[in-house]
Every structure is written in C-alpha cells, then in structure tokens.
What we know:
By secondary structure, the protein is of the alpha+beta class. The protein has one domain: outer membrane lipoprotein receptor (LolB), chain A (Clam), CATH 2.50.20.20. The chain is built from five helices and twelve strands. It has a twelve-stranded mixed β-sheet, covered by helices on one side.
Amino acid sequence: xxxxxxxxxxxxxxxxxxxxxxxxxxxxxxxxxxxxxxxxxxxxxxxxxxxxxxxxxxxxxxxxxxxxxxxxxxxxxxxxxxxxxxxxxxxxxxxxxxxxxxxxxxxxxxxxxxxxxxxxxxxxxxxxxxxxxxxxxxxxxxxxxxxxxxxxxxxxxxxxxxxxxxxxxxxxxxxxxxxxxxxxxxxxxxxxxxxxxxxxxxxxxxxxxxxxxxxxxxxxxxxxxxxxxxxxxxxxxxxxxxxxxxxxxxxxxxxxxxxxxx
Length: 262
C-alpha cells in the first residue's frame, strides 16, 4: 500500500525527512552554549516540551498538516491532511488520516503487527513487527518506506534528540497560536530549519511546527497545527486491534527492492 497521489504526481522531491533527521542536521551546525537569556529560555522550553511528551504514558492529539511537493518544473504544490494520533505506550497506536481529497486511511499497531487500511477502497496491508512504538514506527518508515509525519515528535527518545540543541535554539518572540500564548522558537542548521510554538502556561505543549528543507530544491516545507492534546484519552483496547472489514481485500506493502550489486 502506498500513497497513490504522490506516486502519480510528477515531482523532484518532497519533505520526507523526519523531524529527528532535521534536528540532527541542525545540531551539526549549532554553536555550543547559549549567548543570551532569550536563547537559554528557548533551549529550556524545547527541552521541557521533549521531556513532557516522552514521559506521557498515553496521549492523543489532532494535527492539521500541509506539505509541499516540488514538481519537475520547480513549481511547489501544497497538499494537506488531518491526523488524529492516539498512543498508549509502550506498544499501542491508532492513527486516523483524512486527506483533503477525502481519502481516509488508518494505521493500527498492537505491539505485534502494523496494519494500514483504506476505509473507502476497502483494502488493507499488514506487516508483522513486535516491539515498542519506536521500533514499529522506525520499521514502518525505513523498511516499508511509508510516510509517518510527526512520529519523531512522539518518540520516547525525543529528549535525547534535542539534548544538544541549547546552542541552536533562538527565541523569535511571543505569539498566540490556537488561542494559546506561545514561545516561538527557531532552530537553524546547514540544511534544515525548524520552528516550534510552545505553550507558555501549563504543560509545554507544541501548538505549531514548521520544518523548512532549506537546501532541498524549491525549499519545501512541512507544517502542522497541533490541537486537542489529551493525556487521559478514554480509548478501548479494541481501538488498537485490527479486524478487516467485511469484503475488504488484502494487498502487500510496496517495498522498494534493494539495488542490484554490479
């Protein structure tokens, strides 16, 4: 199973780099040691956000996402989708995706199997993979070559990913997003820029995220507006179990073949 819209859209490249990868690129170029109180504050806000999200035993969040696909002509075309993500650590996930064109797809992980299904076309694909959410998401993205935006933001090792970011964090200012007063934090590296809007009061929750792939042709962006954070979601066990709908047809994941050695 693949995103057929992307498969049939002529393009050079799109923002497929994960948040963790982009963060790593930022860290390569980041100077060490904050040089001002504002930078120290920005670094602490990012670290607090990462620690809070990683420690949550369960959570749910809605994300209105947009991303650019750069065409062969150099033109950028924006696509969008809404994602409702529910996690129960260490090994349960339920993700609902509704694209702007109306296509609906879900992902379910029960600690042993990843299942993806299209609710309208009534097709599904499964892959056996036992382990934690981090293990399953890594396998899904890297071995099955599937899109899974924002998975790094919800990874249990997020604090490790941002541990060395103190030198690159910069406070842009105070802004209101989703009706919430936030700290707008920017991170800049050699190849990718990251912006986060983190709630000032209460839990340090990200309200918005933007990644700009600055050296990629066309400088495509990925953006997400994050809302409806819930750390006590009332979700039944059945939500993390996949049962094919009546009449549904199983199809394989289209995994790229490895390059033939000369």
